[in-house]
Amino acid sequence: MDPRTASISINDRGFLFGDGVYEVIRSYNGKLFSLEEHLRRLELSMAALDLARPETDLAGLIRELFAKSGLSDAKVYLQITRGSEPRNHLFSLDLEPNLYINVSPAPAAAGELGRVSAVTVPDLRWHMCNVKSTSLVANIMAKHRARQAGAQDAVFVRDGVVTEAASSNVFLVEDGCLFTHPADNHVLAGVTRKHVLALAREAGIPVREEKVGRERLNAATEVFLSDTVHDVHPVVRIDGQPVGGGTPGPVAVRLAAAFRELTS
Question: Does the annotation count 194 as an active-site position?
Answer without folding.
Answer: no
